[in-house]
Specification:
The protein is α/β, with parallel strands linked by helices. The chain is 41% helix and 17% strand. The chain has an eight-stranded parallel sheet with strand order 1-2-3-4-5-6-7-8. The structure holds nickel (II) ion. The site of nickel (II) ion (NI) has 5 residues, from loops.
Amino acid sequence: MFIDTHCHIDDEKFSDKDAVYTNLVAKNVIYAINMSCNNKSIDDSVYLAEKYERVYFGAGIHPSDIEELNDEIIDKIIGATKHKKCVAIGEIGLDYHFEPFSREKQVDGFIKQLEIASSVSLPVSIHCRDATGDMLNILKDNKSKIKNGAIMHCFSGSVETARELIKMGVYISFGGTLTFKNAKNLKEVAKDIPNDFILTETDSPYLSPEPYRGRINEPQNVSLITEYLAFLRNTDVNNMATTILNNTCRIMPKLK
Ligand code: NI
C-alpha cells in the first residue's frame, strides 16, 4: 500500500475527481492527504475528505496566498482542525521564488500557523522554495511549536540541509522530482537519510514523476515514487511501503 502525504485533488486541473479517486484506490493508495492553500481550498478539502474515504486533509494558508491570513481565517483553520479527518496544518511555509512577495508577511504568517499547529497538537506540512536559510532559522527558533511533528514537503535541498532538518526531528517527504534524471543531489539525500524520517507524496497535479514528467500528476503515481525510493535504498517495495506507513502513522496519529 502507498501513501500520498501531500496532494491537491481540489485543484481545478482535476476536472473528474471521481476518476482521480478511482485510480488511487486501484493503485492501492490507502491515504491521500489533500493540503489546502487558501480559504477556498480549506472548504474544498473538507468536502473531499467527507466524500472520499481515503482522502484526509491539512488546513492552512500557503505562503503565496499569505495575504489571506487574518484573524477570521485563523479561527477557520482552528475550526477545521477539529474535523476528524484533519491530520495536519498545511501547507504552510516560505516561497521567495515569485516576485513580488513580502518576506515579512510570509515569515509572520508561517510562525502564526506553527503556533496553531502547536496549540491543536497537529504536525505541519512545510513548503520551502528559495528560502532555506530563513526556514532553518525559523524552525530552530520555534522548536517547541513543531513538537507534534513537521514534514518538509517535496524536499529538494542538499544532504547537509536534510541532515540539519532530521536533527530537529523534521521528516523528509519525497515527490516526483526524486525520479528526474538531473536530481543527483536529491537521490543522494534519499540514500543518506535514516528510515524513520522518510515520507512520500505527489504534490499532484504538479511534478509528475518519470516517465510521466510534464503531464498532470495524480495521487496514484505515489506508487512510482515509493518504487524508486526502494530501488535507491536497495530494498524491496513492500519493505519501503511498510516503513512509510509506520512513519506516516507516527507523525499523523489521527489517520485511521
Ligand atoms: Ni503543495
